[in-house]
Structures are given as C-alpha cells and as structure tokens.
Write a structure and sequence with these properties.
Elements lengths: L3 E4 L5 E3 L14 E3 L41 E6 L2 E7 L9 H14 L4 E5 L3 H13 L2 E7 L4 H9 L3 E5 L3 H11 L12 H7 L1 H9 L7 E5 L4 H15 L8 E7 L4 H7 L21 H10 L6 E2 L1 H12 L7 H8 L9 E5 L7 H9 L3
Parallel strand pairs: 5-12, 6-7, 7-8, 9-10, 9-12, 10-11
Antiparallel strand pairs: 1-2, 1-3, 4-5
Helix pairs in contact: 1-2, 1-5, 2-3, 5-7, 6-7, 8-9, 10-11
Length: about 375
Amino acid sequence: MRVSYINRRSGAGWPADRALWRAPDDGGPLELEPGRGLARDEIERSEPSLWRYRAAIRVDDGDRVSLGEGLTPLVGTEWDGRRLLFKCEHLMPTGSFKDRGTAVMMSHLKQAGVEALLEDSSGNAGASVAAFAAAAGIRARIMVPESAPAAKRVQIAAAGAELQEVAGDRDAVERAALAAAETMFYASHNRQPFFLEGTKTLAFELWEQLGFRAPAAVAAPCGNGANILGLYLGFRELQEAGEIDALPRLHAVQAANNAPIRTLFDGRALPRGPTVADGIATARPIRGRMVADAVRATGGSVPVVSEEAILGALGGLARSGWFLEPTSATVAAALPQIPEDDLVLVLTGSGLKTLDVHAGLLAIGG
C-alpha cells in the first residue's frame, strides 16, 4: 500500500515503508500525505472493529494487530437537561480511546519490522501500547510520571512491558524519552503519524452510526489533541470523498489549570497548575498549532473547565451510571460553554483507571 511521510516543516517526503518518528533531513515533525477517504459501500460490515474501514486505513492488512478495538456504542442520553449523544470510547479493550491509534500504529510498526520500542505517556497511551505490543510480539519500554494513577501503572506492567517511572511532570517524562530515543526506537503516540491514521476512524464510525451523516458538533477532551486531529482528518476525508457536505464543529475541551491549546487558539494565557484530568495535562502539545487550526477551521471552540467543575461532573456522571475517569468528565463539565444541538461528547477513559479519585469523592460525599 503506497503512502508517504511528509515533513511538516520542509515539505520533503519519504515512502512510509519504514518506521520513522521524525524527519530524516532535519528531525522535523512528520505527517502522512492526505488520504483518499472512504465511501459507504467500502465498509466491511461483517467486521466488528475499526478495521471495517480498512479501505481507508493505510497499513497492509496482513500485518494487522487487533484486540477488537473500535465500534464503540453511541448512546443517546439526558444530561444537565439536554439530549446528547455519548460516544463510549472508554469501552475499548484497554479502557481508553488510545486503542484506536495504537492498533494502527502498532500494525505499521510490525509491518516495518520493529522488534522493540519506547513510549512515554501519562498512563492511558502507555497501557494501550503495552497491550498491543504484547499482542504484536514487540518488546516495549514505557515511561510514565511517578504520579501516574496506580491502575495505569499496574496495567502497563501486567502486559509485560518494562515500566519506568520518571520523577517530575509529563514534560519531564517526554524529555527522558527523547534522551532514551537515541538508542531505542521511539514509538511516541504524539509524534507517530500512523497514530492519527487510527484516531481518524472515530469520524468514520460516528458518520456510519448516525446514518451516514456528520453530527453538528463533537466535543472531546484535549491534551495533545489526537482525538480532535483524528476527527478533523476523518471528516475531511469523508468530505473530500463526497460523503458529507460540511465538517462538524469541533470543541477541544481543556482543564483551566492546563490549557495551552486555548492560548494557541485565542491568545488568552491561563496560569498553570495541577489538574485531576491527568490524561490532558500536557503543557507543550507537539501538534498544538495544528489542533488550534483544526478547531478554528470548523468553527469550533476551546472551552476550559475548573477542577471543581470536573469533579462535580465526574460525580454526577457516576450517579447516572457513567463510571469514567476525570479526563472524560471534562466534556460534561464544559456543556454550559457549548450551546449546540446534535452534539456528540467523546468519553475517552474508564473510571477503573482512576479508582483513587472516585474513592476520594466518596469520602467527602461527592
């Protein structure tokens, strides 16, 4: 399957038949050339996973690494007096949306002959990479902050990966990974463009589940922005293929204590502090400008939500039957800032990832 990497800075290109995470010429960030999109008659309807869209996924099918990811429920529900659609990405095999990107990225790396890899993560991506590396027979070393939730660290180790806990915040972990990348292949989900090749299938799935139409708007938690960029790429491919007329408005929700995308979007800087939404606690998102541009291009927004609002939404969701991690709860907390009808909220991670937070809420009667 012919596909090329593109250096986002220089415009140079290389065949994507080998594993790269940065451009060979200047170390710049890589993207994939635009995809051709998907027609509804190309969907393999008997396939109960994201691989039903393999006509638009640019890896050779014989190298597929899969744990049954994708085809998550789209559930209509009432929340805060509004009728909404919840996209249940927290029901993925490892309990987070990361499995979409990881499945395709790992399939590409297996195809390219990678035998051992390094990943850095706040937890969910590390757990996902550890699981899919195990399924692919690839050795994995996963770096996470010492403060990463215990459940996520256990999940990584249980999959047989080498778990390395790094002192400091999420950015310190990335610095450690970049240093280690001199001697081990760096499968950074934030840098590897095949990860977005997987997350774009979220757009295809929403389109199919809604009867081959795009919703008016989608809101998703946003750290490095893999969901927002995947939605943008996927819906744009559908538009180019003539399957939809317009892109949905994309709303990239951030914690007020960690909102670099908001600054890139409208120039308003907010003071940084700790956030319970650990999955989006990224101070310097690698594709931050691309995320802001994608939101702007769709007429969307970058809502920011307080810690109090996140915890309030987390407890309220749990009492409504939705057991989620705090990062997922940010989209519910942001609803007053998103006055949209026909709105999809992406629920990104399971509450089983952050039992300590839920236990704390129960202890204070939250």
